[in-house]
Amino acid sequence: MERSERPFTWSWLLLFTTSGTLICCAIPITLVSLGLGAAVASMASSMPWLVTLSLYKGWMFAVSGVLIVLSAWAVYRPGRACPADPELAAACERADRRNRRFVWLSGVLWFVGAFAAYALPWIALG
Q1: What angle do CA 54, 111, 77 make, to 5 degrees?
Q2: Which of 19, 57, 73, 106 has the most CB atoms around it within 10 Å of its CB?
Q3: Nearest to residue 11, comparing CAs of 118, 114, 107?
Q4: What would you report as the CA-atom Rg of the chain, rounded to the nearest whole angstrom?
Q5: Contacts with 106 (C-beta within 8 Å, 6 or more apart), sequence order
Q6: In 1-126, which ranges are continuous DSSP H helix?
């Protein structure tokens, strides 16, 4: 199948944005909660862009959440049908399965990141 005939997939964009929420926010907060603040300081000094990402974590979670919702709609919307041609139908089914897996994986990563970024600090302080 030619590249122009392949269906558009959200998979890599979703995985990139939800992984970004984990890297910027969830991992550092979890490490600090576990008493590994020196590791976070080392990460921040070797990767200064993490500080910038964490300043905009609300926007990161909002944008990635909207992307997940849009991709879930694109994957699960009513009236979707694969082509009648057997070869194209098989490719469509494979792409649909892969996209559904990525949507669920991205959703789980997003919720883990949101829990670590927003709920874990309250739990640790309380």
Answers
A1: 120
A2: 106
A3: 107
A4: 18
A5: 14, 15, 17, 18, 64, 68, 71
A6: 11-21, 27-33, 37-46, 49-55, 57-76, 86-114, 120-125
